[in-house]
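Sat 14:20. Reprocessing the chain from the morning session after the first attempt stalled halfway. Input below, unchanged.
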Amino acid sequence: MNFAQSNVYQRTLKRVGKVAYILILAVTLMIILLPGLWVFLNSLRPINEIMAKPPVWIPQSLSFDHYKAMFDPVGSGGVPVLKYFRNSLIISLSSTLIALLIGLAGGYAFARTHFKGKRHWFLGLMLTRTVPGIALSLPLFMIMAKLGIIDTHFGVILVYVALNIPFTIWLIDGFFRQIPIELSQAAQIDGCTPWQAFWKVEFPLAKSGIASAGIFAFLTCWNEFAIASQLTRSIHSKTLPVGLLDFTAEFGVNWGGMSAMAVLITIPAIILTFLVQKHLVSGLTFGAVKG
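Finished this time. Tokens:
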């Protein structure tokens, strides 16, 4: 095989590899999106197609009846979606902001300072995330009941903050470790105080990690169901995921209405992800200082 033939063979091999890579990605994406697509289609088709056996993959008719019925007055079979949305927004934003502030301080402390038992404290903090949320629901309910904060925004926010702090500390700590400490030291040599060096040098470089921690914390709070279903009772504190239970009855489930509300729940999360997707890329500070 001469040089020209070898070159053509290598280009053909690269093209085949690229096509195979794209096909694998496409199939994987279809598998991931299939459940979401099924829920979306169920929110637009009548109940007879939803309950059909065998399943109807291609809808025969589509309508927004389930969405309209969901926004009907509560006494007429509707669901207080706007109140649930308000509760979810208040709880998720408040929990995320508080967890970020504490996580920022804790992550920076673990990344930049040295103190006795640092590794043990960090390991203990991370071990708290090994306990599944569903296992905590009952003891949390008993504690919150004794404190008298069941069915309140404050009670749910307090729990969500406690659940998100270990993850935000871990993630922010990792990003600050990627930032060479020499940058902060150089800024202080040039006249900055440690506080100014943090805000003007280190914080801008770590903002991608902080934003990522905030996104994950927000989505965790926004989508959480197990704990919220135990700590909320009325429309004054129920979140959107808990509100899905309004479509269940003694003798059946309104799958169309539940699917419509599930679609509404995912929309804010999708919008947020697209708005801040550039901050989800880590490692922006590699190579900031030449060795």
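Residues 3-70 form one domain.
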